[in-house]
Amino acid sequence: MPVLKALALALLVTAPPLALPAPAEYQVKAVFLFNFSQFVEWPQEAFPAADAPFVIAVVGEDPFGAQLDAAVRGENVLGHPLVVKRYRTVGEVESCQILYISDSELARIDKILNSVERRSVLTVSDIDRAAERGAVIQFTNERNRLRLRINVAAAKAAGLTISSKLLRPAEIVGERQG
Amino acid sequence: MGFLRFAGVLLAPMLAYGASDSTADLKKLSVEQLMDLEVTSVSKRPEKLSETASAIQVIAREDIRRSGASSLPEALRLASNLQVAQKNSHDWGISARGFNTELANKLLVLIDGRTVYTPLYSGVFWDAQDYLLEDIDRIEVISGPGGTLWGANAVNGVINIITRNARDTQGLYLEAGGGNELRNFSGLRYGGALAENVDFRVYGKYSDRGDAVLSDGGSAAGSWRMSQGGLRIDAEPYSSRNRLTLQGDFYGGDENLPTGGDAKLNGGNVLGRWSRRFSDDADMSLQAYYDHTHIALPKPSNGFAPAGILTDDLNTYDLDFQHHFRLSGRHRLVWGLGYRFTHDSVGNAPTVQFLPARLDHDLFSGFLEDKILLRDTLFLTVGTKLEHNDYTGLEYEPSGRLQWNFTPRQMLWAAVSRAVRTPSRIDRDLREPTLLPAPFPDSILNGGPDFISETLVAYELGHRAQLGATLATSISLFYNEYSDVRSTTPAPAGFPSFGFPLVFQNNLEGETYGMELSVTYQSLAGWRLRGGYNLLEEHLRVRAGQVDFGNALNETADPEQQLSLRSSIDLLKNGQLDVALRWVDTLHNNNGPFAGTVPSYFEADVRLGWRLSERFELSLVGQNLLHDRHPEYGFPSAAREEISRSVFGRVTCQF
Q: How many contacts does A have with B, using Cβ atoms within 8 A?
């Protein structure tokens, strides 16, 4: 052990700055979903009623657990209270403003994206090339740091206006499905 | 990943420790700042298809830290689907779904994909298995058979100990402390980058533990010292689709034995793994390792032959390939091939011998498993393993699992599996010489030349749910049918053999059934409560027309019921208080044909942690606080060792 300690002291000089305990990936993604509700503008007709809630829907196996509920608790978007709803399949999804498509829906993502096309829904997914396939925002993980890929044409088609606060740090993806 | 996510849902409450606070902090950050944060992911490794439709519990790193555990067996007490009994200061009996005898042999344990059981008796020397607990990412504990993926010995359960990627263990970590039983310990790790996308860590640890106590209160002279060190390098050359891991550990230690002398153990291993992700649903991995273990165990005289030292040197070379891909939209296939060569060399003691002393064995294996999407939320997984070993030839371990995610947060599963416990050296090669002249018996107990594999057919049913944001539950029911379980057949009674030698045969059979229940309640205000309950009924009997010297008592040593309750509270801003209570029912064991018991007991562990600054944390841990000492294992006698109350302090710092 003394040998190891000496080694450690020798290496100490090059030690990197303090790393705080890293938050879990889906805790940060949950906060991103909340931020999307703040940095994207939905058209008035996206809400069925003036007092309707702002719904973040999760379709498929839910990776967030309590994290997403914690991120939206007590929050609202222009007076619409934020709520989280979870669905097994896209057929069950009623009105929603953000639709998170879980990895479990890999085989069905195209069908899901088609079913919400031209509705004012911000589609979000982790699935590989989701943005190319027509999702508005795709998360990627680059060496444990989260990145956003945004399909602006899909956002436009859904009638959504995305703030430059989101667009600036994101990678913009051209839609290739015509 | 998709399949792992369900486990992720169940884990979320654990990982979400104080989530409300840190989430509130995260919400104050800008988008750029959020992108700058380093995040930890639940898992990146290729999915193990059967895992979620099984009785799995996952122990997260934070759970281990907050439990105050100072060793792997102590950390394993966090899995309520295991039976963990401390025998003395350095030996543990750990099993799932029963059969937790001195020669427990139905649990497969892997550390980063490396099998750690000994072919001497197919059990685990828990005193030789350790790691810097801070650098363990998680421990997956599966109760129930896992033979289809993991092969022989994954009969009643599988424990996967997974250490962290070197990229996630950067910087310096130091810990040190001491107390009355865990007299002193220290640990250290340093992690850095060798090049872009190439990270490493080195670690070392040392511990010195005091004696257990004999049932009359005297010292059991079982103190134990252990050192371990190691290295891990993780690289992602070219792109994150390729991952290379190179790791190795070495350890050495000695322990006093109440029967006299010192046992010595040491060993080391080196492992390399290349994994490549082709797409979101196709990947492969190739892994090779070498492992060496050495033990030297003083064996007292048996009344006939004198005392001496039993040594064992085991060299294992293992190669493993796995490929996972999607075939059409509905089939997810995983298949693999494996080869293991073991060279075992025993230095025989006068009283305990393995013949032949040197033994080379080849193990060939292959498996194929298909997870089929039957309907939107209904999956069927079918597959089998085929293995060829030098004792019994070809063995097959098929299973079928049905998984129904009937709501996004609830799952029902059912499984039928076959698993085998192949013979170990003790079953075939053991001799316990008496040195008596003919016609008297020349040995007390012999391995059986015709000993074959023990087999299990298991029926399981389970339900898991995440109810709202705060409650997660899991219940598993099982019914196990065992055949060809180990028995000891006596020689003819009377002069001159007097029933000896006893010979291992496969004359026991029987059923076990029971349930495992676990509940996690996570309040968002930094309080988590976890409960676990196990019920186990065991009915082993001697096959009709046969005789067992042990009266069918020798293969089980288990409590019928077990209850655990664990509370974790965040105190003020920087404090943490964890209290764990456990109740273990009367344990039924035996000494040869005679039944004995270990009384049921209640015990409590407490950890109080205090974060002094971002770098320093102090904690005070009390283990087994309710009694001065209590037995957890062993046949009633003056030599039975008991476990004392233990208190120690620990300081950790990170730079």
A: 201
Pairing between strand B594-598 and B587-591? antiparallel
Predicted local distance difference test score (pLDDT) of residue B155:
96
Q: What is the DSSP string of A26-45?
A: HHHHHHHHHHHHHHEE--GG
Check residue B41 and give its pLDDT. Answer: 55
Contacts of A60 in chain B (CB under 8 A): 2, 408
In a domain, A99, yes or no: yes
pLDDT of res. B469: 65
pLDDT tens profile B158-169: 999 999 999 889
pLDDT greater than 60 at residue A152: yes
User: Residue B442's domain spans which residues?
Assistant: 2-654
For chain B, percent of residues with pLDDT exceeding 90 = 68
Place of tokens 């069905």: A108
Please tell me if residue A111 touches chain B, with a CB cutoff of 8 Å.
Answer: no
Q: Which residue in B26, B36, B411 has the most chain A C-beta atoms within 10 A of its own C-beta, making it the best mutation to test that interface?
A: B26
Show residues of chain A in contact with B33, CB under 8 Å: none
For residue A8, tell me if it sits in a domain. Answer: no
- Chain B residues inside the 8 Å CB shell of A73: 20, 524
CB contact under 8 A, A86 and B408: yes
A52 and chain B in contact, CB less than 8 A: no
Domain that holds residue A81: 22-173
Tell if the CB–CB gap between A65 and B469 is shorter than 8 Å: yes
Inform me whether the C-beta atom of residue A6 falls under 8 Å from chain B C-beta atoms.
Answer: no
User: Does residue A1 sit within a domain?
Assistant: no
Domain count along chain B: 1
CA distance B55 to chain A (A): 18
DSSP letter string, B192-220: EEEETTEEEEEEEEEEEE---EETTS-B-
CATH number, domain at A99?
3.40.50.2300
Residue showing tokens 């964890």 = B578
Joined tokens for residue B286? 């190739």
Global ipTM? 0.81
* Per-residue confidence (pLDDT) for residue B407, from 0 to 100: 78
Q: Is B494 exposed, middle or buried (0-12, 13-18, 19+ CB in 10 A)?
A: exposed
**Are B39 and B29 contacting, i.e. CB atoms less than 8 angstroms apart?**
no
pTM above 0.95, yes or no: no
Q: How many distinct structural domains can be found in chain A?
A: 1
Q: Does a structural domain hold residue A12?
A: no
Q: What's the CATH code of the domain at B361?
A: 2.40.170.20
Distance from CA of B605 to the nearest CA of A (A): 25
